[in-house]
Amino acid sequence: MNRYTNDAVELLKRLIATPSVSRSESDAADIMQQAMEEYGFTPHREGNNLWIMSCHWDDSLPTLLLNAHIDTVKPVATWQRNPFIPIMEGDRLYGLGSNDCGGGLVALLQVFRAISARMDEDTATGRPPFNMIYLASCEEEVSGAGGIRAVLPLLPKVDVAIVGEPTGMQPAIAERGLMVIDGVAHGKSGHAARNEGVNAIYEALDDLLFIRDYRFEKISPLLGPTKMQCTVVNSGTQHNVVPDECRFIIDVRTNEHYTNEEVFEFLQNKLKSSLKARSFHLHSSCIPEEHPLIQRCKAMGMQPFGSPTLSDQALMRFPSFKLGPGQSSRSHSADEFICISEIDDAIAKYMRLLED
User: Fold this and answer.
1) pTM of the prediction?
2) Within 13 Å, how many C-alpha atoms sit on residue 41's CB side?
3) pLDDT by residue (tens digit) across 276-307?
4) How far apart are CA 243 and CA 226, in angstroms?
5) CA dist., res. 235 & res. 242, Å (int)
6) Does residue 174 contact residue 307 with C-beta atoms inside 8 Å?
7) DSSP 260
8) Number of C-alpha atoms within 13 angstroms, CB side, residue 311?
Protein backbone atom coordinates (compact mmCIF):
# COMPACT_ATOMS: atom_id res chain seq x y z
CA MET A 1 0.00 0.00 0.00
CA ASN A 2 1.53 3.33 -1.03
CA ARG A 3 1.47 6.49 1.09
CA TYR A 4 -1.52 8.03 -0.66
CA THR A 5 -3.64 4.89 -0.32
CA ASN A 6 -2.66 4.51 3.32
CA ASP A 7 -3.59 8.12 4.08
CA ALA A 8 -6.89 7.72 2.21
CA VAL A 9 -7.82 4.62 4.23
CA GLU A 10 -6.90 6.19 7.58
CA LEU A 11 -8.98 9.28 6.75
CA LEU A 12 -11.91 7.11 5.70
CA LYS A 13 -11.77 5.22 9.00
CA ARG A 14 -12.06 8.53 10.87
CA LEU A 15 -15.03 9.55 8.74
CA ILE A 16 -16.83 6.23 9.27
CA ALA A 17 -16.43 6.67 13.04
CA THR A 18 -18.03 10.14 12.79
CA PRO A 19 -21.80 10.08 12.11
CA SER A 20 -22.53 12.37 9.16
CA VAL A 21 -26.15 11.82 8.15
CA SER A 22 -27.35 14.51 5.73
CA ARG A 23 -27.73 17.93 7.37
CA SER A 24 -25.66 16.74 10.36
CA GLU A 25 -22.21 16.69 8.76
CA SER A 26 -20.37 19.35 10.77
CA ASP A 27 -18.10 16.92 12.64
CA ALA A 28 -17.17 15.12 9.40
CA ALA A 29 -16.54 18.48 7.73
CA ASP A 30 -14.20 19.38 10.60
CA ILE A 31 -12.26 16.17 10.00
CA MET A 32 -11.99 16.92 6.28
CA GLN A 33 -10.83 20.46 7.00
CA GLN A 34 -8.19 19.21 9.41
CA ALA A 35 -6.93 16.69 6.83
CA MET A 36 -6.71 19.36 4.12
CA GLU A 37 -4.76 21.64 6.44
CA GLU A 38 -2.43 18.81 7.44
CA TYR A 39 -1.70 18.30 3.74
CA GLY A 40 -0.70 21.97 3.48
CA PHE A 41 -3.85 23.38 1.87
CA THR A 42 -5.99 26.33 2.93
CA PRO A 43 -9.60 25.19 2.51
CA HIS A 44 -12.61 27.38 1.84
CA ARG A 45 -15.74 26.50 3.79
CA GLU A 46 -19.42 27.26 3.22
CA GLY A 47 -21.54 25.56 5.85
CA ASN A 48 -20.33 21.95 5.79
CA ASN A 49 -18.94 22.16 2.24
CA LEU A 50 -15.17 22.43 1.83
CA TRP A 51 -13.06 23.09 -1.23
CA ILE A 52 -9.43 23.69 -2.12
CA MET A 53 -8.00 25.12 -5.33
CA SER A 54 -4.75 24.85 -7.27
CA CYS A 55 -2.06 27.06 -5.80
CA HIS A 56 -0.87 28.20 -9.22
CA TRP A 57 -4.22 29.36 -10.58
CA ASP A 58 -4.36 30.68 -14.15
CA ASP A 59 -7.68 31.99 -15.47
CA SER A 60 -6.59 31.23 -19.03
CA LEU A 61 -6.45 27.48 -18.33
CA PRO A 62 -9.34 24.98 -18.23
CA THR A 63 -10.59 24.01 -14.78
CA LEU A 64 -11.26 20.48 -13.53
CA LEU A 65 -13.56 19.89 -10.55
CA LEU A 66 -13.10 16.78 -8.41
CA ASN A 67 -16.21 16.26 -6.28
CA ALA A 68 -17.59 13.77 -3.76
CA HIS A 69 -19.95 14.07 -0.79
CA ILE A 70 -19.32 13.64 2.92
CA ASP A 71 -22.88 12.89 4.07
CA THR A 72 -24.54 9.48 4.43
CA VAL A 73 -28.03 8.07 4.62
CA LYS A 74 -29.30 6.77 7.97
CA PRO A 75 -28.20 3.18 8.66
CA VAL A 76 -30.83 0.55 7.92
CA ALA A 77 -32.00 -1.73 10.74
CA THR A 78 -30.45 -4.92 9.30
CA TRP A 79 -26.78 -4.00 9.91
CA GLN A 80 -24.96 -6.94 11.52
CA ARG A 81 -21.99 -4.72 12.46
CA ASN A 82 -21.89 -1.32 14.12
CA PRO A 83 -22.18 1.08 11.13
CA PHE A 84 -20.05 3.68 12.93
CA ILE A 85 -17.12 1.43 13.80
CA PRO A 86 -14.66 0.94 10.90
CA ILE A 87 -13.97 -2.79 10.70
CA MET A 88 -11.26 -4.32 8.52
CA GLU A 89 -11.85 -7.88 7.32
CA GLY A 90 -9.25 -8.90 4.79
CA ASP A 91 -9.41 -6.43 1.90
CA ARG A 92 -12.76 -5.00 3.04
CA LEU A 93 -13.38 -1.91 5.15
CA TYR A 94 -16.91 -1.98 6.60
CA GLY A 95 -18.78 1.10 7.77
CA LEU A 96 -21.61 3.47 6.87
CA GLY A 97 -20.60 5.68 3.94
CA SER A 98 -17.51 3.61 3.10
CA ASN A 99 -18.81 2.86 -0.39
CA ASP A 100 -21.19 5.81 -0.89
CA CYS A 101 -19.13 7.68 -1.29
CA GLY A 102 -16.29 7.65 1.20
CA GLY A 103 -14.00 5.71 -1.11
CA GLY A 104 -14.30 8.31 -3.86
CA LEU A 105 -14.11 11.17 -1.37
CA VAL A 106 -10.76 10.15 0.11
CA ALA A 107 -9.29 8.86 -3.17
CA LEU A 108 -9.97 12.12 -5.01
CA LEU A 109 -8.46 14.15 -2.17
CA GLN A 110 -5.25 12.14 -2.48
CA VAL A 111 -5.29 12.64 -6.25
CA PHE A 112 -5.65 16.41 -5.78
CA ARG A 113 -2.77 16.25 -3.31
CA ALA A 114 -0.51 14.25 -5.64
CA ILE A 115 -1.28 16.30 -8.75
CA SER A 116 -0.82 19.54 -6.81
CA ALA A 117 2.67 18.37 -5.87
CA ARG A 118 3.41 17.67 -9.52
CA MET A 119 2.05 21.09 -10.50
CA ASP A 120 4.42 22.69 -8.01
CA GLU A 121 7.25 20.97 -9.84
CA ASP A 122 5.83 21.98 -13.25
CA THR A 123 5.98 25.68 -12.40
CA ALA A 124 9.76 25.42 -12.45
CA THR A 125 9.73 24.44 -16.13
CA GLY A 126 6.45 25.97 -17.34
CA ARG A 127 2.83 26.48 -16.39
CA PRO A 128 0.60 23.61 -15.17
CA PRO A 129 -1.75 22.13 -17.80
CA PHE A 130 -5.02 22.93 -15.97
CA ASN A 131 -6.57 24.39 -12.85
CA MET A 132 -8.05 22.05 -10.30
CA ILE A 133 -10.68 22.27 -7.55
CA TYR A 134 -11.42 19.57 -4.99
CA LEU A 135 -14.87 19.90 -3.41
CA ALA A 136 -16.18 17.82 -0.50
CA SER A 137 -19.89 18.65 -0.48
CA CYS A 138 -22.68 17.94 1.99
CA GLU A 139 -26.43 17.19 1.83
CA GLU A 140 -26.07 15.12 -1.36
CA GLU A 141 -28.33 12.33 -0.15
CA VAL A 142 -31.23 14.76 0.33
CA SER A 143 -30.40 17.18 -2.53
CA GLY A 144 -30.35 19.88 0.15
CA ALA A 145 -30.10 23.59 -0.55
CA GLY A 146 -27.14 23.79 1.82
CA GLY A 147 -25.08 21.35 -0.24
CA ILE A 148 -23.40 21.78 -3.61
CA ARG A 149 -26.11 24.20 -4.76
CA ALA A 150 -24.79 26.70 -2.22
CA VAL A 151 -21.20 26.26 -3.40
CA LEU A 152 -21.29 26.22 -7.21
CA PRO A 153 -22.03 29.98 -7.48
CA LEU A 154 -18.93 30.65 -5.35
CA LEU A 155 -16.53 28.70 -7.58
CA PRO A 156 -14.64 29.93 -10.64
CA LYS A 157 -15.87 28.71 -14.03
CA VAL A 158 -15.63 24.92 -14.23
CA ASP A 159 -14.99 23.20 -17.57
CA VAL A 160 -15.49 19.58 -16.56
CA ALA A 161 -16.08 17.58 -13.38
CA ILE A 162 -15.38 14.09 -12.11
CA VAL A 163 -17.85 12.97 -9.44
CA GLY A 164 -16.50 10.19 -7.21
CA GLU A 165 -19.68 8.13 -6.83
CA PRO A 166 -19.21 4.32 -6.81
CA THR A 167 -19.20 3.12 -10.42
CA GLY A 168 -16.66 0.30 -10.29
CA MET A 169 -14.27 2.81 -11.91
CA GLN A 170 -16.29 2.80 -15.12
CA PRO A 171 -17.37 6.22 -16.45
CA ALA A 172 -21.08 6.96 -16.03
CA ILE A 173 -21.50 9.51 -18.81
CA ALA A 174 -25.26 9.94 -18.46
CA GLU A 175 -27.50 10.09 -15.41
CA ARG A 176 -31.26 10.12 -14.98
CA GLY A 177 -32.96 13.23 -13.64
CA LEU A 178 -35.65 13.25 -10.97
CA MET A 179 -38.86 15.19 -10.52
CA VAL A 180 -41.48 14.55 -7.85
CA ILE A 181 -45.00 15.83 -8.60
CA ASP A 182 -47.88 16.13 -6.15
CA GLY A 183 -51.29 15.66 -7.78
CA VAL A 184 -54.76 16.39 -6.43
CA ALA A 185 -58.00 15.19 -8.03
CA HIS A 186 -61.06 17.12 -6.85
CA GLY A 187 -64.58 15.82 -6.23
CA LYS A 188 -67.51 16.69 -4.00
CA SER A 189 -68.26 15.03 -0.67
CA GLY A 190 -71.56 13.33 0.00
CA HIS A 191 -73.24 10.42 1.81
CA ALA A 192 -72.20 7.09 0.30
CA ALA A 193 -75.59 5.50 1.11
CA ARG A 194 -77.43 8.05 -1.02
CA ASN A 195 -74.80 7.98 -3.77
CA GLU A 196 -74.32 11.72 -3.43
CA GLY A 197 -71.37 13.85 -4.44
CA VAL A 198 -68.55 13.31 -6.89
CA ASN A 199 -65.99 10.66 -5.94
CA ALA A 200 -62.48 12.14 -6.20
CA ILE A 201 -60.98 8.65 -6.45
CA TYR A 202 -62.93 8.02 -9.65
CA GLU A 203 -61.91 11.48 -10.90
CA ALA A 204 -58.28 10.45 -10.45
CA LEU A 205 -58.60 7.11 -12.24
CA ASP A 206 -58.15 8.39 -15.80
CA ASP A 207 -55.06 10.34 -14.76
CA LEU A 208 -53.57 7.34 -12.97
CA LEU A 209 -54.17 5.11 -15.99
CA PHE A 210 -52.50 7.70 -18.24
CA ILE A 211 -49.47 7.79 -15.94
CA ARG A 212 -49.31 4.00 -16.02
CA ASP A 213 -49.68 3.57 -19.77
CA TYR A 214 -48.01 6.56 -21.45
CA ARG A 215 -44.63 5.99 -23.12
CA PHE A 216 -42.34 8.93 -23.92
CA GLU A 217 -41.09 8.78 -27.51
CA LYS A 218 -37.44 9.80 -27.24
CA ILE A 219 -35.28 6.88 -26.10
CA SER A 220 -31.75 7.36 -24.78
CA PRO A 221 -29.16 4.79 -25.93
CA LEU A 222 -27.60 4.99 -22.45
CA LEU A 223 -30.55 5.59 -20.13
CA GLY A 224 -33.50 4.17 -22.03
CA PRO A 225 -36.89 5.93 -21.91
CA THR A 226 -38.09 8.65 -19.58
CA LYS A 227 -40.22 6.88 -16.96
CA MET A 228 -42.95 7.91 -14.54
CA GLN A 229 -44.85 6.04 -11.87
CA CYS A 230 -47.54 6.85 -9.35
CA THR A 231 -46.02 5.77 -6.04
CA VAL A 232 -48.43 7.12 -3.38
CA VAL A 233 -52.24 7.52 -3.32
CA ASN A 234 -54.27 8.89 -0.41
CA SER A 235 -58.01 9.56 -0.27
CA GLY A 236 -61.06 9.30 1.94
CA THR A 237 -61.82 9.74 5.62
CA GLN A 238 -64.32 6.97 6.36
CA HIS A 239 -66.33 4.28 4.59
CA ASN A 240 -69.63 6.18 4.32
CA VAL A 241 -68.30 9.52 3.04
CA VAL A 242 -67.69 10.07 -0.67
CA PRO A 243 -64.18 11.58 -0.80
CA ASP A 244 -63.86 15.09 -2.18
CA GLU A 245 -60.10 14.87 -2.69
CA CYS A 246 -57.63 12.25 -3.91
CA ARG A 247 -53.94 13.03 -3.50
CA PHE A 248 -51.17 11.16 -5.33
CA ILE A 249 -47.46 11.42 -6.00
CA ILE A 250 -45.75 10.91 -9.37
CA ASP A 251 -42.09 9.90 -9.51
CA VAL A 252 -40.56 11.00 -12.85
CA ARG A 253 -37.13 9.84 -14.04
CA THR A 254 -36.04 11.80 -17.12
CA ASN A 255 -33.43 10.95 -19.71
CA GLU A 256 -31.29 13.60 -21.40
CA HIS A 257 -33.90 14.21 -24.13
CA TYR A 258 -36.44 15.84 -21.79
CA THR A 259 -36.14 18.58 -19.21
CA ASN A 260 -38.21 18.33 -16.06
CA GLU A 261 -40.03 21.51 -17.06
CA GLU A 262 -41.04 19.98 -20.41
CA VAL A 263 -42.44 16.85 -18.78
CA PHE A 264 -44.34 18.87 -16.19
CA GLU A 265 -45.95 21.10 -18.81
CA PHE A 266 -46.89 18.02 -20.86
CA LEU A 267 -48.58 16.40 -17.86
CA GLN A 268 -50.43 19.59 -17.00
CA ASN A 269 -51.94 19.55 -20.47
CA LYS A 270 -52.87 15.86 -20.30
CA LEU A 271 -54.19 15.36 -16.76
CA LYS A 272 -57.35 16.73 -15.13
CA SER A 273 -55.85 16.81 -11.65
CA SER A 274 -54.06 19.80 -10.16
CA LEU A 275 -50.29 19.29 -10.28
CA LYS A 276 -47.38 20.86 -8.42
CA ALA A 277 -43.72 19.92 -8.91
CA ARG A 278 -41.64 19.94 -5.75
CA SER A 279 -38.66 21.21 -7.76
CA PHE A 280 -37.23 21.22 -11.28
CA HIS A 281 -33.51 21.43 -10.54
CA LEU A 282 -32.57 17.71 -10.60
CA HIS A 283 -32.10 17.41 -14.34
CA SER A 284 -30.74 14.51 -16.33
CA SER A 285 -27.10 15.07 -17.24
CA CYS A 286 -24.66 13.74 -19.80
CA ILE A 287 -21.23 14.32 -21.27
CA PRO A 288 -20.44 13.59 -24.93
CA GLU A 289 -18.60 10.34 -25.50
CA GLU A 290 -16.23 12.36 -27.69
CA HIS A 291 -15.01 14.42 -24.72
CA PRO A 292 -11.22 14.01 -24.33
CA LEU A 293 -11.52 12.63 -20.79
CA ILE A 294 -14.06 10.03 -21.87
CA GLN A 295 -11.93 9.10 -24.85
CA ARG A 296 -8.99 8.64 -22.49
CA CYS A 297 -11.15 6.48 -20.20
CA LYS A 298 -11.96 4.27 -23.19
CA ALA A 299 -8.29 4.11 -24.15
CA MET A 300 -7.61 2.84 -20.63
CA GLY A 301 -10.11 0.02 -21.17
CA MET A 302 -13.07 1.58 -19.34
CA GLN A 303 -16.62 1.20 -20.64
CA PRO A 304 -18.96 4.23 -20.59
CA PHE A 305 -22.51 3.58 -19.36
CA GLY A 306 -25.70 5.32 -18.25
CA SER A 307 -26.51 5.50 -14.55
CA PRO A 308 -30.05 5.17 -13.12
CA THR A 309 -29.06 6.73 -9.78
CA LEU A 310 -29.05 10.42 -8.93
CA SER A 311 -26.08 12.44 -7.64
CA ASP A 312 -24.86 16.04 -7.33
CA GLN A 313 -24.03 15.73 -11.02
CA ALA A 314 -27.69 16.67 -11.62
CA LEU A 315 -26.93 20.17 -10.33
CA MET A 316 -23.89 20.78 -12.53
CA ARG A 317 -24.47 22.92 -15.59
CA PHE A 318 -21.15 21.96 -17.15
CA PRO A 319 -19.86 18.63 -18.55
CA SER A 320 -19.45 16.01 -15.85
CA PHE A 321 -19.34 12.26 -15.32
CA LYS A 322 -19.29 9.84 -12.42
CA LEU A 323 -16.19 7.73 -11.85
CA GLY A 324 -15.39 6.20 -8.50
CA PRO A 325 -14.36 3.11 -6.53
CA GLY A 326 -16.93 0.68 -5.14
CA GLN A 327 -20.21 -0.60 -6.49
CA SER A 328 -23.53 1.24 -6.58
CA SER A 329 -25.31 -1.95 -5.47
CA ARG A 330 -23.63 -1.67 -2.05
CA SER A 331 -24.93 1.84 -1.43
CA HIS A 332 -27.67 2.37 1.17
CA SER A 333 -27.42 -1.29 2.16
CA ALA A 334 -26.64 -3.09 5.42
CA ASP A 335 -22.98 -3.90 6.10
CA GLU A 336 -21.76 -1.48 3.44
CA PHE A 337 -18.07 -1.84 2.58
CA ILE A 338 -15.31 -0.67 0.27
CA CYS A 339 -12.26 -2.70 -0.69
CA ILE A 340 -8.84 -1.23 0.05
CA SER A 341 -7.71 -2.56 -3.33
CA GLU A 342 -10.54 -0.54 -4.94
CA ILE A 343 -9.28 2.67 -3.35
CA ASP A 344 -5.71 1.90 -4.39
CA ASP A 345 -6.83 1.10 -7.93
CA ALA A 346 -8.93 4.27 -8.09
CA ILE A 347 -6.05 6.53 -7.11
CA ALA A 348 -3.81 4.91 -9.73
CA LYS A 349 -6.45 5.21 -12.46
CA TYR A 350 -7.34 8.80 -11.62
CA MET A 351 -3.66 9.70 -11.81
CA ARG A 352 -3.24 7.94 -15.11
CA LEU A 353 -6.39 9.58 -16.50
CA LEU A 354 -5.13 13.07 -15.62
CA GLU A 355 -1.39 12.67 -16.06
CA ASP A 356 -1.33 14.44 -19.43
Assistant:
1) 0.90
2) 28
3) 999 999 999 889 999 999 999 999 999 999 99
4) 32
5) 10
6) yes
7) H
8) 32
